[in-house]
Structure formats: structure tokens, C-alpha cells
Write a structure and sequence with these properties.
2 domains, single chain, two-stranded antiparallel sheet, about 100 residues
Length: about 100
């Protein structure tokens, strides 16, 4: 059974990397061929081989001293964070601006 699974895994890796050749028909005749790739198959392989990067993300709960702060200090820190976020350009805006300046 192990050899069969190894052979199946090898075939799946080849299909994901090299694609599958399919015939192209015109008026009932084979006139060529095309190669079809499967992004879904590639994603399954990435999720199984590189789980730390492509696998499901895990939620981590952390506690901070935020709960111990006074309401006024919480508000001050929250407004400071919001200010920093609104001053930073979003990635799409930054790319657009850099394209216009070149």
C-alpha cells in the first residue's frame, strides 16, 4: 500500500508541476494539444508540504496590560494607533503614487 501511495503522490506532483496534456479538436479532428494546470491541486500540495505557510491559520489569544489601563489611557492609545494607521498609505495607493512619480 505504501508503494501505491508513493506512486500516486509522484503522479500528483507531476500533474501539478507539468500539467496534463489534452487534445484540441476542430471539426471533429485533433489539430493540436494544450496543457491544463490545476491551481487547486497545487494549493493542496502546498498546504500539505508547507503547512506553516499555506495551512490553516490558528488563532492565538494573548492578554496585555491593556485591560489594566484606565479608560482614558485606553482611549489615548487607541487614538494614537488609529492616527498611525490613517497616516500610512495603503499598498495599492503607494503603488499608484510610485508609478505616477516615475
Amino acid at each position: 500500500m505504501g508503494q501505491g501511495l508513493d506512486a500516486l503522490e509522484d503522479e500528483i506532483m507531476c500533474r501539478a508541476k507539468d500539467g496534463v496534456v489534452e487534445p484540441v479538436f476542430y471539426q471533429g479532428q485533433v489539430v493540436g494539444e494544450t496543457r491544463r494546470y490545476s491551481d487547486t491541486l497545487a494549493m493542496f500540495i502546498l498546504k500539505s508540504k508547507r503547512r506553516e505557510v499555506w495551512g490553516k491559520k490558528k488563532e492565538i489569544t494573548a492578554t496585555t496590560e491593556f485591560e489594566q489601563l484606565s479608560p482614558e489611557e485606553r482611549e489615548r492609545r487607541a487614538l494614537a494607533l488609529i492616527g498611525r494607521l490613517t497616516m500610512r498609505p495603503r499598498p495599492r495607493e503607494a503603488a499608484f503614487v510610485s508609478l505616477r512619480t516615475n
